[in-house]
């Protein structure tokens, strides 16, 4: 995965960084843990200014987070609950899962929005309970902006600091990212199989 990301960034520069980070927040299989270090590496090679990739990456992440936030507000908690009750099995989501997420978000609120921006997978999902909970857009935007800027700066800084050494590490990091996705998919399939077996036994 890292090869085509590198090629994309070399062709489109900071604009490409923003596009990939936007897509990463809508389609998580494109990991920021690869995109932003490559952007930082491009800074070390003199191809892009650090502030350019930082602003572009942060804006892309912010836009992706706002997409899910406003989509969740539009759908509404009750409509989602009705859908999960009827069709949530294939996603291995139950009404009880929604209740647990609500309780967790009620406890942590804005700090969850900030902290989860730095956790793979959760950085996309955290916008959904925020939207369902009717967290004010201004508050969500503030904590999201702080979180995405900090995370983007950290990843880009790593790539910039490592320079040529990052190019040597990119291959193994790409395989690790792929392995994580495979493990997550395997976990989902296993959970789906267990839930289907439990429903058959209950019937």
UniProtKB/TrEMBL annotation:
Keywords: Cell membrane, Membrane, Transmembrane, Transmembrane helix. Residues 30-160 form the VTT domain. The keyword Membrane applies. It is found in: Cell membrane. The keyword Phosphoprotein does not apply. It is a multi-pass membrane protein. One of its GO terms (cellular component) is plasma membrane. Pfam families: VTT_dom. The chain crosses the membrane at residues 12-30, 50-71, 142-163, 169-190. This is TVP38/TMEM64 family inner membrane protein YdjZ. It comes from Crateriforma conspicua. The lineage of its organism: Bacteria, Pseudomonadati, Planctomycetota, Planctomycetia, Planctomycetales. The gene is ydjZ_2.
